[in-house]
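Structure first, sequence second, as always.
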């Protein structure tokens, strides 16, 4: 019996979910599978491997491919969050190889890398470019079209992610708590945040913040609340958004200059929920980057990261 040959397996894995897709040689998706987190910093190596295996199995099933009849996978790109240091690279590669062994599939060309880097290389097709992601977290990758790759930010919600949805939401909560004890001015954020979480008083917000129910995603979702308060004329919210713009610009400027492309033509891709839902931040970032780097080609995309990762996979030798 002839074995099925898979052109491309692409995986986009993060701190909350993982998406695996199987495509043909043109990048058309034949099947997809979803599972939980594969960022080992968030769920640990064992659960990360389990999620990876589950997502890949589901992708084959969705494509109608008998897993027992798979001959080989020509190319695979496993793009995961949490690959930030040399130690991360070693640990994640070990996790991926264990998953591949458990799946009993043969992969001719396997690429394991940071999800944002993979998305950048796929989106720009290896031309000089920068990817700025501002979603729940924030990070920048820059590529000089040769071999130089630079990263800025992306150090997670505890110590980084400046300008992200989570960072904006955290500033909003801090402003409400300062208002509560008289250290800060009155802000519409108090009313809007209590309403969003269905809390009766600010103490409920504080209790939630230190409970097991607290989540990074819920705080990140408050970025839209800050935008709402800003549009209603709240000065505290405006200052939060202005600071977010400054932080995002610092991420970009640092990466562009470090990559040595500040005088060159390059693509800048803006991606993530902050740019999709907050027009003030998007417009400010776009206009000010254009002033700093006149040769930049600005791209705001709603394309899902997996599409960029597929493009990255198709270009692998």
């Amino acid at each position: 019996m002839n074995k099925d040959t898979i052109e491309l397996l692409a995986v986009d894995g993060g701190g909350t979910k993982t998406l695996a897709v199987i495509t043909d040689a043109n990048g058309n998706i034949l099947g997809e599978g979803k599972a939980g987190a594969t960022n080992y910093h968030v769920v640990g190596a064992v659960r990360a491997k389990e999620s990876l295996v589950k997502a890949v199995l589901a992708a084959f099933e969705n494509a109608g491919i008998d897993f027992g009849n798979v001959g080989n996978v020509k190319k695979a790109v496993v793009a995961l969050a949490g690959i930030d240091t040399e130690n991360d690279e070693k640990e994640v590669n070990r996790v991926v190889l264990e998953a591949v062994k458990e799946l009993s599939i043969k992969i001719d060309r396997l690429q394991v890398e940071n999800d944002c880097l993979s998305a950048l290389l796929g989106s720009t097709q290896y031309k000089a470019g920068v990817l700025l992601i501002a979603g729940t977290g924030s990070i920048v990758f820059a590529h000089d079209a040769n071999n130089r790759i630079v990263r800025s930010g992306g150090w997670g919600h505890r110590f980084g992610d400046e300008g992200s949805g989570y960072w904006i939401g955290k500033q909003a909560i801090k402003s409400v708590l300062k208002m509560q004890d008289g250290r800060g001015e009155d802000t519409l954020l108090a009313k809007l945040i209590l309403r969003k979480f269905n809390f009766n008083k600010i103490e409920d917000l504080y209790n939630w913040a230190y409970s097991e129910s607290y989540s990074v995603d819920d705080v990140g979702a408050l970025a839209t609340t800050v935008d709402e308060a800003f549009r209603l004329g709240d000065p505290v919210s405006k200052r939060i958004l202005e600071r977010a713009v400054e932080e995002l610009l610092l991420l970009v400027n640092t990466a562009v200059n470090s990559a040595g492309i500040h005088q060159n033509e390059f693509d800048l891709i803006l991606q993530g929920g902050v740019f999709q839902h907050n027009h003030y931040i998007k417009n400010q970032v776009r206009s000010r980057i254009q002033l700093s780097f006149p040769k930049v080609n600005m791209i705001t995309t709603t394309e899902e990261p997996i599409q960029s990762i597929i493009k990255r996979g198709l270009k692998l030798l």
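Margin note: The beta strands are 4-13, 18-23, 29-35, 70-80, 107-114, 129-134, 138-143, 149-153, 266-271, 296-300.
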